[in-house]
Every structure is written in structure tokens, then in C-alpha cells.
Amino acid sequence: MTSALALSVTDLAVARGGIPVLEGLSFDIAPGQALILRGPNGIGKTTLLRTVAGLQPALKGKIGLDREAMAYAAHADGLKSTLTVEENLTFWSSVFGTGSIEPALEGFNLAHLRGRAGGSLSAGQKRRLGLARLLVTGRPVWVLDEPTVSLDVASVALFAQAVRGHLAGGGMALIATHIDLGLDEAEILDVGPFKAKPPENDHFDEVFL
Ligand SMILES: Nc1ncnc2c1ncn2[C@@H]1O[C@H](COP(=O)(O)OP(=O)(O)OP(=O)(O)O)[C@@H](O)[C@H]1O
């Protein structure tokens, strides 16, 4: 872990394609805590996660930890299809300067697939590899967009266990999900009320002229 500081987000506004989608968001995630984002399709959860992870600029507001604290996982997992499962994890481990990949292989039931090319994995196995990557980043904040897509029930349980292990080690997690992860200890934030209002018309009177 590179940081034991809390993640404080203050008065954040985020935009997609130049259009504000969420605004006025403030939350804190303390070490050992997970926050689950809820809200209907298209409200802006992915946009919020990408902004918190430092992949796009905020319109407004403050994110209290820098992007080096974040490990982001979404649909495109950055998996190299010609490398084996083991080589993918070893590559990420060397990029992030962390140690053994064995806990990641074990944690996501990938040990028996270690010699298989990434490109030959099933959708759920690819997703498990993408999530196993989180374990080798050594980063304190996991920022996860629909992490359980394609996962079977047993793999969802493995995922929940990995998150719990991360939290127990002082890590933090910010997760957008539509399903129940069984992480009853997590806080929930419904982003619905933070939907950005349409910009005010500066020339309101002119509309009626
Ligand atoms: N490239 C784009 N340009 C403009 N608007 C976009 C673009 N991509 C997405 N949007 C819009 O931005 C809004 C926020 O999208 P976002 O993906 O953040 O929502 P979400 O809450 O993650 O949705 P879901 O639950 O369906 O994953 C949506 O209304 C979406 O249609």
C-alpha cells in the first residue's frame, strides 16, 4: 500500500462529451471502507469513476488523492491476448513494482489457467484476470466499474473475498454495480440526486421576445 490516507472527494462535478452529468458530489472513503455507487443507466457512474481514477479531468471540485493511488478496472481490462495468464500478471507486477503474483492467481482461481493465452480465455475468465490485476497493483484505492459482469456466482464470491482482503489491509474501494455483491459492510451512495441541472439560459428574457 502506498497510502493510508482517506479518499476525500469534495463538490465534484463531472462531464461526458463536454456535457455535465453529475454535480455537487462529496464523499469520504476511509482506509478499510468500501463505497458502492448506485443509480440508473446513463446517470454518470462510469464518468464519475473515470474522473476519480484520474482518467479524465473534473469539471469542478477536489479529489483528495492523486491518480497514483488508484487502480481502475472496467470493461477493457488491458489484458494482452498473446501473453499467458501468468505473463500478464508478471507484466503488471513489474509495471507496478509489486512482488509475487501467486496470491492473485489463487485469489481469482486462475492457477490452473496460468499457461493459457489471455486471448483464449472465456469472458468470465478474462474478467477474473482483469480483477486479479488489482491485487498486483499494490494500490490503495480500487475504482471498479461493474466488476462482476460475466462472473458466475462462485467468482462473484471470490471477488467479494478479494475486496474484503483489500479492505482488511487498509485499502479502499469505490464500486459501481447493479448487483448485490454481498458486501454488507459497504456504504451506499445513490448518485441520482446529483444529476447535473441543465445550464441556465443567460438570455432567458430573449426567449420571449
Ligand atoms: N462519448 C460520449 N459523448 C457524449 N455523451 C456520452 C458519451 N458516452 C456516454 N455519454 C452519455 O453520458 C452519460 C453518462 O454515462 P455513464 O456511462 O457515465 O453512465 P452510467 O451511470 O455509468 O451508466 P450505466 O449504468 O448504463 O453503465 C449518459 O447519458 C451517456 O449516454
TrEMBL record:
GO annotation (BP), single: cytochrome complex assembly
Q: Does the keyword RNA-binding apply?
A: no
Q: Which SUPFAM superfamilies match?
A: P-loop containing nucleoside triphosphate hydrolases (SSF52540)
Alphabetical list of Pfam families matching this protein: ABC_tran
User: What are the GO MF terms of this UniProt record?
Assistant: ATP binding; ATP hydrolysis activity; transmembrane transporter activity
Domain named ABC transporter: which ranges?
Answer: 7-209
Q: Which UniProt keywords apply?
A: ATP-binding, Cytochrome c-type biogenesis, Membrane, Nucleotide-binding, Translocase, Transport
Q: What is this protein called?
A: Heme ABC exporter ATP-binding protein CcmA
What is the organism field in this record?
A: Rhodalgimonas zhirmunskyi
Q: Which gene encodes it?
A: ccmA
